[in-house]
Write a structure and sequence with these properties.
Oligomer: single chain
Mean pLDDT: 85
Largest sheet: none
Radius of gyration: 14 Å
Distance between the termini: 33 Å
Shape: globular
Number of helices: 5
Helix content: over 70%
């Protein structure tokens, strides 16, 4: 099954529970850090990032349940810390695709 199905499901649940679209986007990316299609991440980076994504999912789990009360600033703070770690690890591993991807996610968008 495509990772996009899991991303869309998490995104929809977050929106249903009152999360803003921009926050839900960051959180969903932190939950599912890798794409289906190549490029395949550098292995040592992938292992660390997958472990952190599981830890993040455990911390976020209660917020994804239907009808859950969300503390958006706290959840976003945790997601940003997770994305920052993904980016730093990708840079250290020399994985330019994911380093650039997470750097872009962490920068506020301009012109919106």
């Amino acid at each position: 099954m495509s990772i996009e199905v899991f991303r869309l499901t998490a995104f929809a649940r977050l929106l249903e529970n009152g999360m803003s679209q921009s926050a839900a986007t960051l959180i969903t990316l932190a939950l599912h850090p890798f794409d289906d299609a190549p490029p395949v991440p550098v292995r040592r980076y992938e292992k660390k990032a997958r472990k952190l994504s599981r830890d993040f999912a455990r911390r976020l789990g209660p917020f994804l349940q239907p009808g859950a009360t969300l503390n958006e600033p706290e959840v976003v703070r945790i997601a940003l810390e997770t994305l920052d770690a993904y980016r730093d690890w990708a840079v250290a591993a020399g994985d330019n695709y994911y380093a650039t991807r997470y750097d872009a996610a962490l920068r506020p968008s301009s012109g919106d």
